[in-house]
Amino acid sequence: MEKSKKTLNTLPVDKFIENEKAKEFCEEFIHSNRPKYIFGRNEFAESIANSVRVDGVIDDFTNKTEYLKLPVVNIQEIPNNSLVVSVVVIGKPNIAEKRLKQFPFDSLDYFSFIKYSGIPIKNIPFWEGFSDDFRENQLIYENIYKSLHDNLSREQFYKIINFRLSYDLKYMRSFKAIEDKQYFEYFLKLQPKHEVFVDVGGFDGFTTEEFIKKCPGYKKVYFFEPIEKNLLIAKKRLERFKKIKFYQCGLSNKKSSLNFSYSASSSKICNYGEIQVEVDLLDKIIEGSVTFIKMDIEGAERGAIDGARKIISKYHPILAISVYHKADDLWRIPSQVLEIRDDYKIYLRHYTEGIAETIMFFIPKNR
């Protein structure tokens, strides 16, 4: 309770204590002859396996027997004197940690491992440059923190900031993997009828389907998804609904073609992307009123906001925007929105146990 009172006044930046036990684990994992395993199969596992000799990969939910030329084994088979690094980073690292602690072998999360191992392994996606940015712009972070509308927003902002600064998973203990509840918080006060929804980064149509459940008398849905495969899945999912306009394009602040890179942990617009996508301005595509815009477009949110300035300024819609794809999104995106209109209440919610799915909501003060 004391923490909640404190968060009302100033953004707490905790004093971090070095984890000597994690340091010892890393030293053993790199240099000892003890059995060594990786919990999970992804690019983080690959980066460890490329740097350290390991004996196998743990995965209880696959029929595959080999990964990266290493044996895939059941967790029940791991020797008690083993060392195990969990590479569950994106969604459920707490659940992974609890599972590992049910066994007598020693284990460590990837965040601590990357902090203390000192070996060249894959960085945490979206965090590159965060510590420097925070130091340079701490006053702005402080102001954003103070502008958040409720205690839960401030509490979650505090935990996310300190998690990024410390790489200590303890800051995420209270979070749950609740992506299915994302975007539709009580404070949006969505109406059953007449809402106009813009789903930017619609993916497979799940979010639009959830919107329709909550607003069955909706007036219109504009659905944007640049990847053809995803768009076809979404059209099939939503085919029973009317008044949905589909666009196979992304949004930005100018009409162009961009390269898009698909990755399990960090898809993004970039020069080396293997897929070419079309982007345009929302202001040029939609002419009528809009009441709710959701954006989750892999780091391209700022450009899309810039390309929707007229709509935001004129119609004052609710905004639900991802603020985790870039290290400085947590302050640049709210600053950008408030520069267009300063009469928004700001909320923040985080929907995983790990690094992904931090959403900032902008609610019109007169709604």
Task: Write a brief structural summary.
By secondary structure, the chain is of the alpha/beta class.
SSE order and pairing:
Blueprint: H1 2-7, H2 20-31, E1 36-39, H3 43-49, E2 56-58, E3 66-67, E4 70-73, E5 83-86, H4 93-100, E6 106-109, H5 110-117, H6 130-136, H7 138-147, H8 151-166, E7 196-200, H9 206-214, E8 220-224, H10 228-237, E9 244-247, E10 250-251, E11 256-261, E12 268-269, E13 275-280, H11 282-285, E14 292-295, H12 301-306, H13 309-315, E15 318-322, H14 329-340, E16 344-350, E17 358-364
Parallel strand pairs: 1-2, 1-5, 2-4, 5-6, 7-8, 7-14, 8-9, 10-13, 14-15
Antiparallel strand pairs: 3-4, 11-12, 11-13, 15-17, 16-17
Q: From the helix content, strand content and strand pairing, which structural class follows?
A: alpha/beta
Number of strands: 17
- What is the count of DSSP helices, taking H or I runs of 4+ residues? 14
Strands in their spatial order, largest beta sheet: 9-8-7-14-15-17-16
Largest sheet, in brief, is: 7 strands, mixed
Shape: globular
What number is the mean pLDDT? 94
Radius of gyration: 22 Å
Oligomer: single chain
The residue ranges in which pLDDT falls below 50 over 5 or more consecutive positions are 1-7
Q: Distance between the terminal alpha carbons, to the nearest Å?
A: 30 Å
What portion of residues belong to β-strands? 15-25%
Task: Summarize the amount of helix as a percent range.
Answer: 25-40%
